UniProtKB/TrEMBL annotation:
<keyword id="KW-0032">Aminotransferase</keyword>
<dbReference type="GO" id="GO:0003729">
    <property type="term" value="F:mRNA binding"/>
</dbReference>
<dbReference type="GO" id="GO:0005777">
    <property type="term" value="C:peroxisome"/>
</dbReference>
<dbReference type="GO" id="GO:0050281">
    <property type="term" value="F:L-serine-glyoxylate transaminase activity"/>
</dbReference>
<dbReference type="InterPro" id="IPR015424">
    <property type="entry name" value="PyrdxlP-dep_Trfase"/>
</dbReference>
<protein>
    <recommendedName>
        <fullName>alanine--glyoxylate transaminase</fullName>
        <ecNumber>2.6.1.44</ecNumber>
    </recommendedName>
</protein>
<comment type="similarity">
    <text>Belongs to the class-V pyridoxal-phosphate-dependent aminotransferase family.</text>
</comment>
<dbReference type="GO" id="GO:0004760">
    <property type="term" value="F:L-serine-pyruvate transaminase activity"/>
</dbReference>
<dbReference type="InterPro" id="IPR024169">
    <property type="entry name" value="SP_NH2Trfase/AEP_transaminase"/>
</dbReference>
<dbReference type="InterPro" id="IPR020578">
    <property type="entry name" value="Aminotrans_V_PyrdxlP_BS"/>
</dbReference>
<feature type="modified residue" description="N6-(pyridoxal phosphate)lysine">
    <location>
        <position position="201"/>
    </location>
</feature>
<dbReference type="InterPro" id="IPR015422">
    <property type="entry name" value="PyrdxlP-dep_Trfase_small"/>
</dbReference>
<dbReference type="GO" id="GO:0019265">
    <property type="term" value="P:glycine biosynthetic process, by transamination of glyoxylate"/>
</dbReference>
<keyword id="KW-0808">Transferase</keyword>
<dbReference type="InterPro" id="IPR000192">
    <property type="entry name" value="Aminotrans_V_dom"/>
</dbReference>
<feature type="domain" description="Aminotransferase class V">
    <location>
        <begin position="13"/>
        <end position="313"/>
    </location>
</feature>
<dbReference type="Pfam" id="PF00266">
    <property type="entry name" value="Aminotran_5"/>
</dbReference>
Length: 401
């Protein structure tokens, strides 16, 4: 047999789906129930209030769809835009590529701004497009906050600054699937019109919940949007919000209880502490990569990602082999290189409900694999670089002081 489960814990270090904490697993271990009973609307009401906090919005309206990140994309586009609308969209890796493909298939007029994989969105090109667009033909800017394929984080506040500078009314649609709840994300402050995430990434839930948050301006745009939408129509939800029953169709009851538990954990730790923890994990991973003498796929410091690190392997090594070996020999899951960077990078996901010692275990595993495939790594070098840094930066656990 090629693949089998080993003893002990599996080390899941793909950048989504990520580990689910025990508290959340237990909260979801329950029977189905009647979603028209008073309990589910009461639970939903608290969830809709509380998910706003992870987007850092008070003015936004959240929608929770039984879907994945891909469905959340579709909901953002079809509720606010009409076929033929011009969209400026940044292509910097596999996830932005897939979103652009969806935009094209939904018949929008996509103006693609491409960067080399490993670089962030080219905002100079955006500035020149905005400055030339006197008659406001650009209806939306679509940008992936954190490109999970290359480990590149874009500066969303800089996009808002440009839109404001040119007094341009285009909507700002942001994919926050591998950032919201892990990286600094400020929907209101950055003037984001639609922000979205999926449950299996930083929220550390099973797959199946797409959470979309719309600004008042995005809600206004639904009135003129002519895109065909049925399942993802925000207006169906708004009708049921008014009635206080919340759900136009059956929600995943277990996922709602899971979301409640996940949010409780996040708020108990403190959202800003969660973000700081991700910054520590990201930094420790990058220090390990440096100690191994390998390069990060992210080309500049300004784009580094604290949720995923794509490690570039030397040309004589196939990164797919590293990922295979991790699974077979060490019970460790690493992310594959996707599309243009297939075979060239492997990815370490360090997002969600995860602590520093778990990460060190992963880094130790990566070192052994590198040695297995013939890369001259000094065992312990990356772990030492990471643990030396972490030892100085791990705070006391507040509840144990
Ligand atoms: C995972 C991911 C998606 C796609 O989400 P699915 O849940 O697989 O549909 C979209 N964008 C980013 C940035 C992602 O990381």
């Amino acid at each position: 047999m090629d693949y089998m489960n080993g003893p002990g814990r599996h080390h899941l270090f793909v950048p989504g789906p990520v580990n689910i904490p025990e508290q959340v697993i237990r909260a979801m271990n329950r029977n189905n129930e009647d979603y028209r009973s008073p309990a589910i609307p009461a639970l939903t009401k608290t969830l809709l209030e509380d998910v706003k906090k992870i987007f850092k919005t008070t003015s936004g309206t959240p929608f929770m769809f039984p879907t994945t990140g891909t469905g959340a994309w579709e909901s953002a586009l079809t509720n606010t835009l009409s076929p033929g609308d011009r969209i400026v969209s940044f292509l910097i890796g596999q996830f932005s590529l897939l979103w652009i493909d969806q935009q094209k298939r939904l018949n929008f007029n996509v103006d693609v701004v491409e960067s080399e994989w490993g670089q962030g969105a080219n905002l100079q090109v955006l500035a020149s497009k905005l400055s030339q667009d006197q008659n406001h033909s650009i209806k939306a800017i679509c940008i992936v906050h954190n490109e999970t394929a290359t480990g590149v984080t874009n500066d969303i506040s800089a996009v808002r600054t440009l839109l404001d500078h040119y007094k341009h009314p285009a909507l700002l649609l942001v994919d926050g699937v591998s950032s919201i709840c892990a990286l600094d994300f400020r929907m209101d402050e950055w003037g984001v019109d639609v922000a979205l995430t999926g449950s299996q990434k930083a929220l550390s839930l099973p797959t199946g919940l797409g959470i979309v948050c719309a600004s008042p301006k995005a809600l206004e745009a639904t009135k003129t949007s002519k895109s065909l939408k049925v399942f993802f129509d925000w207006n169906d939800y708004l009708k049921f919000y008014k009635l206080g029953t919340y759900w136009p169709y059956t929600p995943s009851i277990q996922l709602l209880y899971g979301l409640r538990a996940a949010l409780d954990l996040i708020f108990e730790e403190g959202l800003d502490n969660v973000i700081a923890r991700h910054a520590r994990l990201g930094k420790a991973t990058r220090l390990a990569v440096e100690a191994w003498g390998l390069k990060n796929c992210t080309q500049k410091e300004e784009w580094i990602s604290n949720t995923v690190t794509a490690v570039v392997v030397p040309p004589n090594i196939d990164s797919t082999e590293i990922v295979k070996r991790a699974w077979k020999r060490y019970n460790l899951s690493l992310g594959l290189g996707l599309n243009k960077v297939a075979g060239k990078v492997f990815r370490i996901g360090h997002l969600g409900n995860l602590n520093e010692l778990q990460l060190l275990g992963c880094l130790a595993g990566v070192e052994m694999i590198l040695k297995d495939v013939g890369y001259p790594v000094v065992l312990g070098s990356g772990v030492a670089a990471a643990s030396t840094y972490l030892q100085h930066h791990i705070p006391l656990i507040p509840s144990r002081i």
